[in-house]
């Protein structure tokens, strides 16, 4: 029944909602989306919203019990989705805790993919401070895919001077790790609202010899006030001006933001430059999972992750 509902949405759009931008449609193929246990609970049936094979990240916010994380992973895996839980280094107490989390995810949900990141807390809870330390444990050996974080507009938590020296050194380390790891690796990024700094950042990484595929973070449709709040909290940089400019336009202030323009510009750049290193779109559903999923369907994101990619 869920798959039938999904197809009926697709057909109704195709028959009456206007043409889909072919470049955006191609760019959205294989998109992923992020959930948290408390937001996932509000979704009655993911199969009515997400295409088969869609990779679903599970964000681990400090204070969330591991039992809730694993239960969410188990539910999504049971519905047929590749699950990629977050492992934030600074909220993991020690190696034994990390090993326990991995064993639970594997044993209860068959998880073999992970996003490794430092985490959004300033003081580590224990032995780990960075995703590199997590990788060095060897506990992720056997995982088919490992993703790391990327920051198209910099990360002042790491490079406090506003530069990117420390971040670039870390990315070079991760690039070298990818070359000796059996796991497929990619970089899932913070969201941004302007295509130009994203394109410049991706081109710079390539010039620096960092060719990890980029899964670009995009904020899904949401109220403008909601997005500005999240953007400030997450340290979004220059592209925040896109939202601030929109907020000054009274005619747009009360309308929900949609990522149409940034995706169209990135998609056009990808079409003109096939070797551009953005591989997929990763959605942050800040306005709700259902809202984001339906927006993606309406703009051509219907196919999920191609079968060959769900394996890696």
Features:
312 residues; alpha/beta; TIM Barrel; eight-stranded parallel barrel; 8 strands; globular; disordered N terminus; disordered C terminus; oxidoreductase; FAD-linked_oxidoreductase-like; Methylenetetrahydrofolate reductase
Description:
Mean pLDDT is 85; it is low at 1-17 and 303-312. Helices cover 44% and strands 14% of the residues. With 312 residues, the protein is of the alpha/beta class. The chain starts with a helix and ends with a helix. Helix 8 (195-207) runs parallel beside helix 12 (260-272) and helix 9 (224-233) packs antiparallel against helix 10. It has one domain (2-13, 23-303): TIM Barrel (Alpha-Beta Barrel). An 8-stranded parallel beta barrel has the order 1-2-3-4-5-6-7-8.
How is the secondary structure organized here?
Elements: H1 2-16, H2 22-28, E1 32-35, H3 37-40, E2 56-58, H4 66-78, E3 83-88, H5 95-109, E4 113-117, H6 131-136, E5 145-150, H7 165-180, E6 184-191, H8 195-207, E7 214-219, H9 224-233, H10 240-247, H11 250-253, H12 260-272, E8 278-284, H13 289-298, H14 307-310
Parallel strand pairs: 1-2, 1-8, 2-3, 3-4, 4-5, 5-6, 6-7, 7-8
Helix pairs in contact: 2-12, 4-5, 8-12, 9-10
Helical fraction: 40-55%
Alpha-beta content class:
alpha/beta
List how many beta strands DSSP finds.
8
Largest sheet: 8 strands, parallel, barrel
The run of helices and strands is HHEHEHEHEHEHEHEHHHHEHH
Compute the CA-based radius of gyration.
19 Å
Shape annotation: globular
Mean pLDDT figure: 85
Strand content: 5-15%
Q: If classified by CATH, what would the architecture be?
A: Alpha-Beta Barrel
- Specify the CATH class: Alpha Beta
Number of helices: 14
Q: What is the count of distinct domains?
A: 1
Unreliable parts: 1-17, 303-312
């Amino acid at each position: 029944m869920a798959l039938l509902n999904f197809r009926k949405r697709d057909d109704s759009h195709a028959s009456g909602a206007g043409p889909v931008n072919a470049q955006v449609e191609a760019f959205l193929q294989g998109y992923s989306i992020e959930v948290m246990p408390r937001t996932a609970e509000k979704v009655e049936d993911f199969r009515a919203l997400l295409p088969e094979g869609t990779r679903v990240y599970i964000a681990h916010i400090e204070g969330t019990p591991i039992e809730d994380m694993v239960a969410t992973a188990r539910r999504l895996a049971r519905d047929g989705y590749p699950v990629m839980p977050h492992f934030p280094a600074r909220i993991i107490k020690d190696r034994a805790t990390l090993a326990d989390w991995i064993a639970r995810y594997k044993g209860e949900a068959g998880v073999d993919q992970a996003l490794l990141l430092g985490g959004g807390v300033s003081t580590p809870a224990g032995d780990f401070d960075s995703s590199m330390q997590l990788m060095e444990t060897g506990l992720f050996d056997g995982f088919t895919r490992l993703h790391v974080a990327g920051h198209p507009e910099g990360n002042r938590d790491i490079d406090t001077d506003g530069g990117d020296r420390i971040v670039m050194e870390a990315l070079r380390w991760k690039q070298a790790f990818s070359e000796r790891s059996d796991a497929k690796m990619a970089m899932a990024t913070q969201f941004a609202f302007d295509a130009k700094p994203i394109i410049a950042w991706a081109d710079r990484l390539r010039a620096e010899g960092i060719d990890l595929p980029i899964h670009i973070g995009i904020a899904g449709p949401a109220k403008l006030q909601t997005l500005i709040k999240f953007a400030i909290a997450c340290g979004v940089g220059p592209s925040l001006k896109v939202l601030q400019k929109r907020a000054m336009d009274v005619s747009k202030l009360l309308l929900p933001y949609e990522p149409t323009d940034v995706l169209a510009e990135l998609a056009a750049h990808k079409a003109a430059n096939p070797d551009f290193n953005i591989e997929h779109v990763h959605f942050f559903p800040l306005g709700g999972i259902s809202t984001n999923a339906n927006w993606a369907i309406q703009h051509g994101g219907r196919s999920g992750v191609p079968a060959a990619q769900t394996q890696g």
